[in-house]
Structure to design on (564 residues):
């Protein structure tokens, strides 16, 4: 695989250098982003022949829905209701403004927005231009944003003025000052909508084919097992396949009303079935600033919401809510739950207590997504994390020597298929570790598979913490803790938590000359917050220890720390 890649300049150091731009790929009209591992030609051909890749761009799909469902409401954001026709107009006017700034095909643009209607304008305008959004989560802060902008060599950064008390406008100024590639740091004004960002909505473009369906459509973030998050390049062709199938498997139609209660830019919220599945089906999307029952239940009741997608801790909040009986939730037909393992006890309660069908979702931004089907028996829905989307998803369960295991025996999950990437963006060393030579992605998940192909997640091999669906890389936090002047060594692990499944715990060894009384969890949290990282990565617990437990080969025993 490695020989096929076209890398940006890589100096052999620990972090690969960012790509420098685009080169012309195998088709003259197809621009291959440097640092992307393409699907091998014979696979691409097969996926096209079988009708998975239809040669359509995300913008084509969007404008198809604008035509077909013009008068349907697409987005509800507070009191504002936007029809598909209106959304299409807004997108083309913003695309005009962004294009006048010089943003076009192949340009990377870091999008850092919460669950607001303008997210749709921005993302579909970028798709129309063939620009490549890089999806940051609203929770991300300076360290992450600076990294995404410089690693992707972003031409622009788009954020909101402020959200949940955080001054994003100040962050935009910092990013513009410190990342040379960022020519435009654009801030959506919520206070007064005719200020700078509003002025970008000018003369509309007309919808045209401005990129190739085989192009990279966007860069999504990986959950993270390394010091820095990896970027995941997804093409129009491959992503649209999952969107069409997800909308079908999740039963979406133009009559559906879907509550968007998780962070909008997460891959799950984008596509499983997510906002793109809703757009494809012509459904109505109701935006919620959070999934908490006091926010979500009134919206379900008011807008007759028919489905929503949650992570397990939020599903538990819904199940255990004391205000549930105060709201009419009878419109709710399907609840997707995924991103982390849902316990069987919680799964069993969904139908009787919330009155809707549970659909488990086990997916990953790298590709493979599994769903339980709406017609599956209750016992299968409760006990498994579902079946792959595509008959051409190649799913292997292997032992540590790579030998395939029989049904029912847990092992490492490897996968390859029509919508699973062949490599991370500009990360040759990580790709060598995380992909087999024949292109299977090593997910790091331990699963067992039944005779029908349904998967049950039983554990995890990768060094990652799954904090209720939010993924945390221990190495990233350890590196930040090691930059504290009082800390000699740091080890970060996931420990069991009733609600989140796992929470983040840091063990630290102080330098010899440091008075332990001078270091407190409060001060360490403050230190990490000042480093500018997403709040969900900041350890929930700290323990100061004299030394770390060791394995018999003298490495830190994270297992002992997890169990201590
Ligand atoms: C989703 O995507 P990511 O990229 O944030 O995280 C992927 C990882 C998986 O490899 C697995 O470790 C874990 O999250 N995971 C689950 C799970 N769903 C995801 N572990 C146990 N049970 C589940 N149901 O999290 C994601 C992407 C698309 C759709 C849904 C989730």
């Amino acid at each position: 695989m490695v020989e096929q890649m076209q890398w940006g300049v890589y100096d052999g150091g620990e972090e690969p250098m960012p790509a420098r731009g685009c080169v012309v790929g195998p088709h003259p009209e197809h621009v291959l982003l440097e640092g992307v591992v393409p699907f091998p030609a014979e696979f691409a051909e097969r996926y096209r022949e079988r009708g998975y890749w239809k040669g359509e761009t995300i913008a084509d799909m969007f404008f198809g829905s604008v035509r077909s469902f013009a008068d349907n409401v697409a987005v509800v954001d507070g009191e504002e209701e936007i029809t598909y026709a209106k959304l299409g107009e807004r997108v083309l006017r913003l695309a005009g403004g962004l294009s006048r700034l010089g943003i076009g095909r192949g340009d990377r643009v870091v999008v850092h927005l919460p669950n607001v209607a303008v997210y749709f304008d921005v993302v579909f305008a970028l798709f129309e231009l063939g620009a490549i959004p890089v999806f940051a989560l609203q929770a991300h802060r300076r360290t992450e944003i600076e990294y995404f902008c410089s690693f992707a060599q972003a031409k622009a950064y788009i954020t909101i003025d402020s959200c949940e008390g955080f001054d994003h406008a100040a962050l935009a100024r910092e990013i513009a000052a410190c990342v040379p590639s960022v020519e435009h740091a654009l801030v959506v004004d919520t206070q007064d909508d005719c200020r700078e960002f509003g002025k970008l909505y000018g003369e509309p473009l007309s919808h045209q084919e401005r990129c190739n369906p085989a192009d990279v459509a966007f860069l999504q973030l990986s959950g993270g097992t390394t010091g820095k998050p990896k970027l995941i390049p997804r093409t129009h062709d491959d992503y649209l396949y999952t969107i069409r199938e997800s909308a079908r498997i999740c039963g979406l139609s133009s009559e559906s009303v879907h509550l968007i209660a998780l962070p909008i830019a997460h891959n799950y919220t984008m596509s499983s079935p997510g906002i793109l599945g809703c757009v494809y089906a012509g459904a109505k999307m109701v935006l919620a600033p959070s999934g908490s029952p006091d926010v979500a239940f009134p919206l379900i009741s008011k807008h007759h919401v028919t489905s929503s997608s949650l992570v397990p801790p939020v599903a538990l909040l819904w199940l255990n809510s004391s205000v549930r009986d105060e709201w009419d939730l009878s419109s709710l037909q399907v609840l997707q739950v995924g991103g982390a393992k849902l316990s069987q006890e919680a799964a069993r309660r969904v139908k009787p207590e919330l009155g809707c069908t549970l659909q488990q979702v086990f997916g990953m931004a790298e590709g493979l997504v599994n769903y339980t089907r709406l017609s599956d028996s209750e016992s299968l829905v409760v006990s498994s994390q579902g079946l792959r989307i595509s008959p051409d998803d190649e799913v292997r369960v292997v032992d540590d020597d790579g030998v395939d295991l029989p049904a029912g025996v847990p092992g490492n999950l490897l996968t390859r298929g029509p919508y699973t990437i062949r490599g991370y963006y500009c990360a040759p060393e990580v790709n060598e570790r995380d992909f087999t030579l024949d292109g299977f992605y090593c997910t790091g998940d331990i699963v067992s598979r039944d005779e029908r192909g349904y998967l049950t997640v039983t554990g995890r091999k990768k060094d990652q913490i799954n904090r209720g669906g939010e993924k945390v890389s221990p190495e990233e936090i350890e590196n930040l803790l090691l930059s504290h002047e009082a800390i000699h060594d740091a080890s970060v692990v996931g420990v069991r938590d009733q609600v989140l499944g796992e929470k983040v715990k840091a063990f630290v060894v102080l330098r010899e000359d440091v008075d332990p009384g001078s270091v407190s969890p409060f001060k360490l949290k403050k230190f990490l917050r000042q480093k500018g990282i997403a709040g969900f990565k900041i350890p929930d617990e700290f323990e100061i220890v004299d030394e770390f437990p060791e394995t018999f080969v003298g490495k830190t025993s994270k297992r002992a720390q997890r169990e201590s």
User: Anything to note?
Assistant: The pocket of OOB is lined by residues 223, 267-268, 272, 338-341, 360-365, 369, 385, 443, 445, 457, 460, 466, 471 (CB under 6 Å). The chain is about 30% helix and 25% strand. The first helix runs from residue 41 to 49.
